[in-house]
Amino acid sequence: MNEIGPPSENASSEPSENKAQIARIMLLGHDLRAAVSDILGGLHLLADEDLSPGMRLQFERMRAAGEDMARLIEEGFEIVTDQAVGPLRQTVQLARLLYDIEMRWTGRAQEKGLGFHVAMAPDVPVLVRLDRIALERVLSNMLSNAVKYTDSGSVRLALTVEANARLLFTVLDDGPGFDPELRGRLFRQGARGEVPGKAGNGLGLFISRDMARRLDGRIEVSNREEGGARVALSLPLEGLMPPEMAIDMPLPDLSRMRVLVAEDSALNQAVLGHMLSAMGAHCDTAPDGVEALEMLDNGSYDLAVIDAEMPRLSGLDLIRTLRASGGRHSTIPIVVCTAYVLRANREAIVAAGADAIASKPLTAIEPLAEAITHAMERQSADPAGDGRRPCPPVVDEAIFEELLAVAGPGASQELLQRLISDLTRVERGLVAGLSEPNLPLVRADSHVLLSVSGAVGAVRLQELSEELCACARREDIAAMQLIGRSVLTQIDRLIAYAGRRQRRFDEVGA
Q: What region holds the Histidine kinase domain (predicted)?
């Protein structure tokens, strides 16, 4: 009689070992996500620092690369844990995508002494819905090849819409072009890497072809008549337009108005011009502060949209000069465009004489429209035109005073310090959560804000926090990021208010 022995050691342990490995991988994924979240949060906080143009470029390059790394980590762990569900379609803000590409590749091109330029046609849609990771891989490989094989001149990326309703990303370089003998093998591993003096494994176009298929797109390569190479990725627009394209808020009517856009980036000039034209405005552009000032001296404008950081004359210096001039544009409504900054920068912008702030990169028309509406309302409510009408109160004074009275003189300072500490911590969490985006983190911090703002009588912040939490629950990322900017502004105002009250206690104590 044959005896049936126990299962073999390998047979019994293999399933449990697999489960243990998956558990370890999931734990590692959690730790990596947390680490990347801390890095991104720290980078966003560094935006408050006064950096040189060179350091600012490197900062933006690190931020864009960090956000790419976060997305790649998510895809990697989906694959390793066998949780991938096919291409991940998500809403992509094309202006933000190009801004991040510009930040990442300008530095890399400069390291080789090359110029790098990005342009976007005005008829390109603001939002599309597609697999962003696949798109970034294709574009990165196209740009990597262009920079690698170009020794002088520049590399250019243009985004346009073809007549046959296709989205077209075109990379042009001033390199040697493609060897005709290698054209038939361009999309095989090692193809362009065989160019003498250019070591490499030639994976770029090989990977790009497969990623393009994942996007239902195609890649075309050719040599330019004037010299250099052309690589183009085209995607069908049909099916890419997301429901978020619908604009919920009424746009300000800027018809019959002339707007000056002072911005040194050609990409941002195109984006701002596209958005302002949609509101009916006629736009003129200036590439720096000096030229903007000359245009304001010699022309007639109804509104100015000014970049905070420009060559020759910064945006803030331009505003201060205008406000102090006493000329016809000394009271013009001014919107300042700047990357998200914390309280010190915002206070400096307002102190210089700006009427409203729009956060860069401008990836949707609503934040700009909201800032323009706010700037126009401030000026119409202030016919004297000093541009400094106070904003609505940040808190209900009666509720705040009652809270301090209950705490008593001895505990009031401690209460204010705890309030500032809680708000600062939440602010950092929201900056990281909105940039990734991290929905659980946004939900958790908006819950904290609901409680804190309600306790101190910050009614507007309480309302916005409730809206932000609802957007995070619905996973409506576009609306969440839009409302999040307003929440961060209100947090800044509340921290500044609590700080002033704290200083008042210190002065009385002294």
A: 27-239
* Listed residues 32, 60, 85: the one ending a domain: 85
Task: Find which of 229-238, 249-258, 500-509 is predicted with most confidence, using mean pLDDT.
Answer: 229-238
Q: Residue 168: enclosing H or E segment and its boundaries?
A: strand 166-173
Transcribe 485-497 into DSSP letters.
HHHHHHHHHHHHH
Band (pLDDT 50/70/90 cuts) for residue 186 is low
Distances (CA, A) of 220 to 208, 229, 240: 11, 11, 21
Name the least confident of 22-26, 132-136, 137-141.
Answer: 22-26
DSSP string, 120-148: E-TTS-SEEEE-HHHHHHHHHHHHHHHHH
Amino acid at 172: L
The Cα–Cα gap between 249 and 367 comes to 10
Q: Are both 174 and 270 inside the same structural domain?
A: no
Q: Which stretch of 112-116, 272-276, 475-479 has the lowest confidence by average pLDDT?
A: 475-479
User: Tokens 């298929």 label which residue?
Assistant: 213
DSSP H or E run through 358 = strand 356-360
Work out how many domains the chain is built from and give that number. Answer: 4
Burial class of 430 by CB neighbour count within 10 A (0 to 12, 13 to 18, 19+): buried
pLDDT of 474? 83
What is the per-residue pLDDT across 449-461, written as a single tens digit (0 to 9) for each?
988 888 888 888 8
CA 281 to chain centre: 25
DSSP 8-class letter at 230 = E
Q: Is the dihedral of CA 94, 59, 270, 338 positive or negative?
A: positive
pLDDT confidence of residue 93: 75
Q: How many CB atoms lie within 10 A of CB 9?
A: 8
CA angle, 292 then 363 then 147, to 5°:
80
- Cα R_g (the chain), whole angstroms: 27
**pLDDT for position 302:** 93
DSSP reduced 3-state for 311: coil
> Could you tell me the two tokens for 94?
């094309």
Among the three residues 223, 246, 269, which one is the final residue of a domain in this structure? 246
Q: Do 29 and 99 lie in a common domain?
A: no
Please report the pLDDT score of residue 459 as a whole number. Answer: 85
121: alpha, beta or left? (left if phi > 0; alpha if psi -120 to 50): beta
Q: Distance between CA atoms of 309 and 289, rounded to whole angstroms?
A: 9
CA–CA distance, 156 with 169 (Å, rounded to integer): 10
C-alpha distances in angstroms, 273 versus 16, 257, 276, 281, 373? 60, 13, 5, 9, 17
Token reading at 397: 């004074």
SS3 55: helix
For position 373, which CATH number holds?
Answer: 3.40.50.2300
Residue 477 pLDDT greater than 50, yes or no = yes
Q: Residues 126, 271: one domain?
A: no
